[in-house]
Write a structure and sequence with these properties.
single chain, 168 residues, alpha+beta, 5-stranded antiparallel sheet, 4-stranded antiparallel sheet, 9 strands, 27% helix, disordered C terminus
């Protein structure tokens, strides 16, 4: 089972290593981790997807809340109401003969062409994990040269915001 956490932290050097180390030391697998600035100045938002069970998720949440730089921890699966997106850049082999077929698949998956060359096309695909995975599989027949992905980025749905700050 996968759980997605939204973690608001102070924007300090080393926070990423402390969070990753905490999860690693407890033997849990990080399926994906994304970090960016947040809407609050001086803070960063981590979106962390972890494989495990309910007990593991509760333990990770408790341990994250103990870190000094962590301001809020929200289990986005708790209410089952989140908006989740993945982003991937996929460089696909595309000769002049196969290029129309590659572009047709890109159109089907609503990909955006971000680069073209004489032998390859790079597309950007966004969506849920299933859409991104299906898109990658569709391009495999042409030959995938390279893939880079963001992992999950998620927020709670409107009306389901929960104040998870440690200061309660």
């Amino acid at each position: 089972m996968k759980c997605v956490f939204s973690v608001l932290t102070e924007d300090n050097p080393g926070v990423l290593m402390r969070i990753a180390g905490l999860i690693y030391r407890r033997g849990y697998n990080i399926a994906s981790m994304s970090v960016s600035t947040s809407n609050k100045p001086g803070t960063s938002r981590f979106t962390i997807a972890i494989e495990g069970d309910e007990w593991a998720f509760e333990q990770v949440s408790k341990q994250l809340n103990k870190l000094v730089e962590v301001l809020e921890v929200e289990n986005l699966n708790r209410h089952g109401k989140m908006v989740e997106r993945w982003l991937s850049l996929i460089k696909v082999s595309a000769t002049m003969e196969t290029r129309p077929h590659v572009l047709q698949i890109a159109q089907i998956f609503r990909c955006r062409v971000v680069d073209t060359g004489s032998s390859a096309v790079t597309v950007e695909v966004t969506g849920d994990e299933g859409k991104v995975s299906a898109c990658i599989e569709a391009f495999r027949t042409f030959g995938i040269i390279e893939i880079a992905g963001s992992g999950t980025v998620a927020v709670s749905r409107s009306g389901f915001e929960v104040d998870c700050s440690k200061n309660q």
